[in-house]
Structures are given as structure tokens and as C-alpha cells.
Amino acid sequence: MMALKLERIYTQPADLDGYRILVDRLWPRGMSKEKAHLDEWLKEVGPTKELRQWFNHEPAKFPDFKAQYLAELAANPAFATLEQTVADHLKDGNVILLYGAKDPVHNQAVILKEKLEAGLGL
């Protein structure tokens, strides 16, 4: 069974076995294109600048951040592109969503993964 995975882009690529998609709006500071081992960068699915700055990676704000980000995604045509890309690549192998945040639990990639799994029936 092919899997949808999450990985922090700054960790030494633990898993190059899959289609690697960066889902942050901003390029990760200090990361070279070569070190990233990306297949695709879908920056449009990241939270808006306003939402990202408001959240400020504060775990206490995560429930509100999640609700607002899901509302943004519902109105964002880039999410449909991501969903189709993930569905297409899961037929042949794993898909790895990459993010830059230090917190592995409270970030937009976690929300994206949950939404994709629900939408794709994973």
C-alpha cells in the first residue's frame, strides 16, 4: 500500500522513496534546491501571509489556525491541484509532504495530510 507521509525538510532526507512536495508558501531558509530533493513546490497551498503571521507557530492558537486554514483551503483552487497530484502519484509510490516548521504536530502540513487522507479515502 502506498503511503502519504510528512517530513520536515530540514531533516536529512529520511525518505527519498516517494514523490516529494514542498507545501510551504515560503522557501525554507538556508535550504538549497539540491539538498531539498524536491519533485514539486506547491507554495499556493500554504497558509496566507496574514494567517501564518497571526499563528506564529503558537500551539495554543493551533485549533483556530486549523479552522481558518481549512476555510482558506476550501476556497483555494491550488488544493484541488495538490489533491490530484497526490492521488496520481500514490498510484505508483509514496507521496511525501515537506514542511519547514520546527513543530512536527502544529503546522499546516499536518492539516493538509489529514484533509488529503479524508478526501482520498486513505
From TrEMBL:
Pfam family, any one: DUF488-N3i
The protein, known as: DUF488 domain-containing protein
